[in-house]
Amino acid sequence: MLHILFLFSLILTSTHVLAQDFCVADLKGVQTPSGFACKTEATVTSTDFVFSGLGLEGNTSNIIKAAVTPAFVAQFPGVNGLGISAARLDLAPGGVVPMHSHPGATELLFVVHGHITGGFISSANKVYLYTLKKGDSMVFPQGLLHFQVNASGKRPSLAIVSFNSPSPGLQILDFALFANDFPSELIEKTTFLDDAQVKKLKGVLGGTG
User: Fold this and answer.
1) pTM for this predicted structure
2) Whole-number Cα distances in Å, 75 to 26, 69, 87
3) Per-residue pLDDT tens digits of the chain, which is 209 residues long
4) What are the backbone angles phi and psi of residue 166, rounded to the nearest 5°?
5) How many beta carbons lie within 10 A of that of residue 18, not counting itself?
6) Dihedral through CA 191, CA 195, CA 200, CA 206, nearest 10?
7) Interhelix angle for 195-205 vs 184-191, to 10°?
8) How close are the terminal C-alpha atoms of the chain, in Å?
9) Which of 72, 168, 175, 193 could covalently link to 105 via disulfide, CB atoms 3.0 to 4.6 Å apart?
């Protein structure tokens, strides 16, 4: 009798899962922790499931000499509710993605060409580093601080990144400290940097206070 009840519950669960094939994001609505509301099926088109941005080179003319082209739910509504998204990472010579974290997803990076040094810091403060070559992949666990640096000398590097969330989130440590109005006095006390160093970094990143 027990196995019959189990089989019946499995059928009901499978039916529930298959009741809706997808949930294309209604970007006109409000994003919640569980994602966007679904567009009505009558308004869904094939283009909702297509994103062409990963084939376009990003603009690396910036302070970090890097460009990230996201294919998250805000740019690619078809991934809403599917637990997946992607991005393109362009690194010019000298390019770097500063120490950052994704609170909502684990990251998997695949090197298309060039060499990229990647690393992350565990909650036990152990550092894991590796210089990746073309064809290599590296995983960066959810929520942990990590970074990428172009290790190709005078040549650019390119990577494609995937995430196990349609909206992985992003917090860049340097910007969190120095690109806002976080009072300099408190930054100095909590980071052991002196006033001159804090003001220099705020000047570079546009912070105040």
Assistant:
1) 0.87
2) 12, 10, 10
3) 545 544 444 444 444 444 689 999 999 998 888 789 999 999 999 999 999 999 999 999 999 999 999 999 999 999 999 999 999 999 999 999 999 999 999 999 999 999 999 999 999 999 999 999 999 999 999 999 999 999 999 999 999 999 999 999 999 999 999 999 999 999 999 999 999 999 999 999 999 88
4) -75, -10
5) 8
6) 70
7) 120
8) 69
9) 168
